[in-house]
Each structure stands twice: as structure tokens, then as C-alpha cells.
Design brief:
Blueprint (H helix, E strand, L loop, with lengths): L1 H22 L3 H4 L6 H4 L15 E6 L10 E6 L26 E10 L14 E10 L2 E3 L5 E15 L7 E2 L3 E2 L4 E4 L4 E11 L1 E11 L1 H6 L10 E11 L2 E3 L5 E15 L6 E8 L2 E4 L4 E12 L5
Parallel strand pairs: 3-10, 11-17
Antiparallel strand pairs: 1-2, 3-6, 4-5, 4-6, 6-9, 7-10, 8-10, 11-14, 12-13, 12-14, 14-16, 15-17
Length: 305
């Protein structure tokens, strides 16, 4: 009888112990970490920690809103460990060699010279320049004293211009540097300079010589027009003022007014020289173009001993 009572008491004590233990279990005590709703959105374990090499267990009641219920459901998750791959550095590469140039460059410079007394002298921009060659770019443009670079393919080329005619001024023949025509190679850079000179007036001085056979045989130098030195004795600032004779003519720029042309002849025994001229003295007007022709007739007779 006593043993039966002891067994009943023992069973009641065990039942009370179980009830007490179950009543103290909560979802927070099941998890190894503190849980909250915000952390549940960022961590598989439902807390502010993100384990990468361990598993975790979250416990919730099966009845929503009752986390003190004895009936608990547990979910185990194992967050995936992320492998961080270090960026790879490609081996250094050797840059390719620069490509060979396919075009050439021609820099075209335009210069204008005007007399100081001229008030209507044009500017380089008033001159239209054309470049002829293998696909020049640009092919036509206004002149510039600073130069205009023109790109073109290799091959022959030439440069021309359209010079304006100015009332009261006379334009002298243009002077082009050797680089204004020829052949150009790929990658080559050349500078073409075109110079134009305006004058107030132009006097074209022509020297002619006629020689007899005797003169040709004994004093041949006197039969060469360049042997004679031409001199502008009078004139309004003539440029040039003296120069060798030329059968094709030498243009002299000068201001308006009187002028007179003569020549210097060296004396040679036996040489007989007579001269005539046409238009080598007189008056020249602003912007006028005149021609002076000086002719020498040369003979030779053996001087007496």
C-alpha cells in the first residue's frame, strides 16, 4: 500500500516537472540568436547574423501570433557560402606599331606686297587659291598669310590662284616657291609660298641687240642683252632702279610722274655702237603700264695699229 502511494506521488511530481519545462520553452530560446521581423528579411536565420559555414534552426508556432504554443514547427536552413573571386589581371600586351601615314600635307602661304602710297591694296584673303592633285582637301580656299594646310594623297600636284585686279594698281608676275608644284609623298609636309606684288605703275624695259658678223666674231659679249646694265635715271621710286638687260623685258614698278631710262656700256676698242629707243622717257600715270625698248646696233672694225 505504501509503495503504491509512493509511486503515485512520484508520477505526479514527474508530470508537474514536465509541465513546468514545457511552459518555459519559447521560439527565442530555441534559436541561438535573437530574432526580429526586420532581420528575417535579410538573414536565413531570422536574425542580424549571417552565418556562412553553420546551419541554424528557426522555430515558430503553428498557430499564427501564438509563439508560446507548445506545438512548434522548426525550419532548418543552411545559407549558401559565397565564393569571392579575385579579379584576374591579363598579362601586359605590346601596343601595335603606329600605322603608316596615307596622306601628305601641303601648307599654302599667301603674301602680298603693295606700295606704301597705295590705299586700296588687297589682302591675302581676297585671293582665291586652287590646289590640283590627288584628292586635295580643301581644293579651293581663300589665301592666308599664316598658311592653309591642305591634305592630299601622294602624287603630282600644282597650285594656282585668281588674283584680283585693282583699279590704279598693276600686278607683277607672281613668284612661287619651288614647293608649289611637283610630287609629294605620303607623310611628307611641304610649304608653298605664293608672293604677289602690286605696283602703282609698271614700266617694262626691253633690251635688244643687233650685231654684224664682224661684231659676233670679235666682241660676242656685246651681242648679249644681259651684258648691258640698264639704269632708271629718273623716276618716282623705281624698283629695281638698275638691272641687267633682258630681251624678254624687266618690269619696273614706280610711282606716277616723269621717268627716263638709259644704259651703261663699257668701251671696247673697235666696237661701234649706235642706239635707239622707244618709250624710254616721258610721263607715266597711276596704274599705267608702259614699255621701253632700247636697241643697240653693234659693229666691229679692227682698230688702227
Amino acid at each position: 500500500m505504501e509503495s503504491r502511494k509512493f509511486a503515485i506521488v512520484t508520477a505526479i511530481a514527474a508530470l508537474l516537472f514536465v509541465i513546468s519545462a514545457v511552459s518555459t520553452i519559447t521560439p527565442e530560446s530555441v534559436s541561438a540568436y535573437q530574432r526580429n521581423q526586420a532581420a528575417s528579411q535579410t538573414s536565413d536565420c531570422g536574425n542580424e547574423f549571417t552565418p556562412t559555414n553553420t546551419g541554424c534552426q528557426n522555430a515558430d508556432s503553428q498557430i499564427q501570433g501564438d509563439e508560446n504554443s507548445v506545438a512548434l514547427a522548426a525550419q532548418q536552413t543552411f545559407p549558401e557560402a559565397k565564393l569571392v573571386q579575385k579579379p584576374s589581371h591579363p598579362p601586359p600586351t605590346t601596343p601595335p606599331p603606329p600605322s603608316e601615314p596615307q596622306t601628305a600635307t601641303l601648307n599654302v602661304v599667301k603674301k602680298l606686297i603693295c606700295p606704301t602710297e597705295a590705299t586700296n591694296c588687297p589682302e591675302p584673303e581676297d585671293v582665291l587659291i586652287d590646289v590640283f592633285g590627288n584628292n586635295p582637301d580643301p581644293s579651293s580656299f581663300r589665301g592666308s598669310s599664316m598658311g592653309t594646310p591642305v591634305s592630299l594623297n601622294p602624287g603630282p600636284y600644282d597650285v594656282g590662284e585668281g588674283i584680283p585686279i585693282i583699279q590704279g594698281l598693276v600686278i607683277l608676275p607672281p613668284v612661287l616657291s619651288p614647293e608649289c608644284s611637283g610630287n609629294i609623298q605620303a607623310g611628307q609636309e611641304l610649304t608653298c609660298t605664293i608672293t604677289n606684288e602690286y605696283a602703282v605703275a609698271i614700266l617694262d624695259v626691253v633690251k635688244e641687240v643687233e650685231c654684224t658678223d664682224s661684231a659676233m666674231a670679235n666682241v660676242p659679249q656685246m651681242c648679249d642683252p644681259s651684258w648691258y646694265k640698264m639704269i632708271i635715271l629718273f623716276g618716282n621710286n623705281p624698283v629695281p632702279a638698275s638691272f641687267p638687260g633682258s630681251s624678254t623685258g624687266t618690269p619696273v614698278s614706280l610711282g606716277p610722274g616723269n621717268y627716263f631710262v638709259t644704259e651703261e656700256i663699257a668701251f671696247i676698242p673697235g666696237a661701234l655702237v649706235t642706239s635707239s629707243d622707244s618709250g624710254c622717257s616721258g610721263d607715266i600715270q597711276d596704274g599705267q603700264e608702259l614699255t621701253c625698248t632700247l636697241t643697240n646696233f653693234v659693229d666691229y672694225k679692227e682698230p688702227p695699229q
